[in-house]
């Protein structure tokens, strides 16, 4: 998953980042209103963890901006504001969930997973595309009766491709989703080619057709023959 954490409290921010990155997720941060607005305007995320009380502005305004931009990112409000009015305002503005501080990180993860599952996997923990079945909790990929042995990046690539099947995905979008915004500093995408080449090879050896189509000069599209 690619997550944006908008949180100014240092200790909480660091603990959340350590928890999610320790499980192999891409986590980016924004520590104030201005940097959060910049991030949501440029990048897409599986889930945004949004604090409401931020230096420079209110998190509710960030949520309004997301909706004005018609962004599809999941949003989980994490806030010490515990009034019913705050919860209703956030949910009515389009947040997917609202979690009151303090909270257990395991509950935060469960709620993030529930949001991503609803938005990307049709509410199921198992993603299916033709003969490919992905158990997103076990992170296991089966092709018919054969279990694929994938690296973490190959697994993330496949999940991202299937979540966006039929769409043209630019190399830049692919790199940002899987490696975060630090990828902006890279001047070539040769490492992407290597991961895609390896993923394609493993899938075809397991009996899949070549679902990954190269779109010359643009990127890739994952689709049936």
Automatic annotation (TrEMBL):
Q: Which UniProt keywords apply?
A: DNA-binding, Phosphoprotein, Transcription, Transcription regulation, Two-component regulatory system
InterPro entries on file:
CheY-like_superfamily, OmpR/PhoB-type_DNA-bd, Sig_transdc_resp-reg_receiver, WalR-like, WH-like_DNA-bd_sf
**Entry-annotated residues carrying 4-aspartylphosphate:** 51
Q: Which SUPFAM superfamilies is this protein grouped with?
A: CheY-like (SSF52172)
DNA-binding region in chain numbering: 124-224
* A GO cellular component annotation in the UniProt record: protein-DNA complex
Reading the lineage from the top rank, the first entry is Bacteria
- GO biological process: any one? regulation of DNA-templated transcription
PROSITE patterns per the record? Answer: OMPR_PHOB, RESPONSE_REGULATORY
Sequence ranges assigned to domain OmpR/PhoB-type in this UniProt record: 124-224
Keyword field contains Transcription regulation: yes
**GO molecular function terms listed in the Swiss-Prot or TrEMBL record:** phosphorelay response regulator activity; transcription cis-regulatory region binding
The Response regulatory domain covers 2-116
Q: Which PANTHER family match?
A: REGULATOR OF RPOS
What this protein is called in its record is: Response regulator transcription factor
Please report the organism this UniProt entry assigns to the protein: Candidatus Pedobacter colombiensis
């Amino acid at each position: 998953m690619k997550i944006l954490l908008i949180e100014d409290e240092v200790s909480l921010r660091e603990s959340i980042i350590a928890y999610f990155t320790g499980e192999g997720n891409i986590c980016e941060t924004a520590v104030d209103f201005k940097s959060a607005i910049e991030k949501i305007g440029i990048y897409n995320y599986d889930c945004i963890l949004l604090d409401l009380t931020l230096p420079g502005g209110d998190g509710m305004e960030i949520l309004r901006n997301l909706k004005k931009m018609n962004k599809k990112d999941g949003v989980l409000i994490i806030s010490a504001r515990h009034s019913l009015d705050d919860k209703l305002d956030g949910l009515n503005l389009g947040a997917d969930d609202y979690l009151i501080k303090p909270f257990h990180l395991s509950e935060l993860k469960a709620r993030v997973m529930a949001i991503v599952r609803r938005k990307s996997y049709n509410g199921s923990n198992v993603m299916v595309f033709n003969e490919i079945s992905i158990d997103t909790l076990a992170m296991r990929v089966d092709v018919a009766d054969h279990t694929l042995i994938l690296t973490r990046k190959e697994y993330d690539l496949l999940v991202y491709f299937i979540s966006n099947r039929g769409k043209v995905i630019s190399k830049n979008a692919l790199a940002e989703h899987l490696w975060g915004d630090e990828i902006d500093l890279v001047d070539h995408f040769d490492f992407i080619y290597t991961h895609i080449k390896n993923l394609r090879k493993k899938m075809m050896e397991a009996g899949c057709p070549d679902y990954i189509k190269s779109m010359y000069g643009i990127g890739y599209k994952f689709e049936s023959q």
